Amino acid sequence: MDWKENGVKVIPGNSLDTNTAQTPGMNRASAISYARVGAQKIWAGTVHIHAGAKTGAHHHGALESVIYVLRGKARMRWGERLEYVAEAGPGDFIYVPPFVPHQEINASSDETLECVLVRSDNEAVVVNLDIAPVEVPEAVAWVDPIHKPPTP
Prior knowledge:
Layout: H1 3-6, E1 27-32, H2 34-37, E2 43-49, E3 58-59, E4 65-71, E5 74-78, E6 84-88, E7 93-96, E8 102-106, E9 113-119, E10 127-128, E11 138-139
Parallel strand pairs: 6-11
Antiparallel strand pairs: 1-2, 2-9, 3-10, 4-7, 4-9, 5-6, 5-8
């Protein structure tokens, strides 16, 4: 195997590809994909959402997605009518299962929300949706099945 040509790839942050599937309200840029590096099972990139902005509702088909918040405050809405909501800040991870309709919102009115995205396939599948969201979503606090919830 020619490891020089088929080994590690370093993608400089200033050379990400914005020619990837987009959703209104955000700017995605691809770092890792089949087209860029020959990735077989993952896609990775970044997303920026301007202060006070929100994306259109969308899902990513059969793909699982992970969002890592670098800077800012993310407010995620999800569900058939975006009826659920949770927030995440720097250092937090967000998991989005396959086919879940969701919307990313920058909860800050003066700071850009910056995140890293990773998906479970080598293509950037995005299905934009036309959803009439509920007016007041239900807040959901996540507690994993292995740890006890915090005591009030």
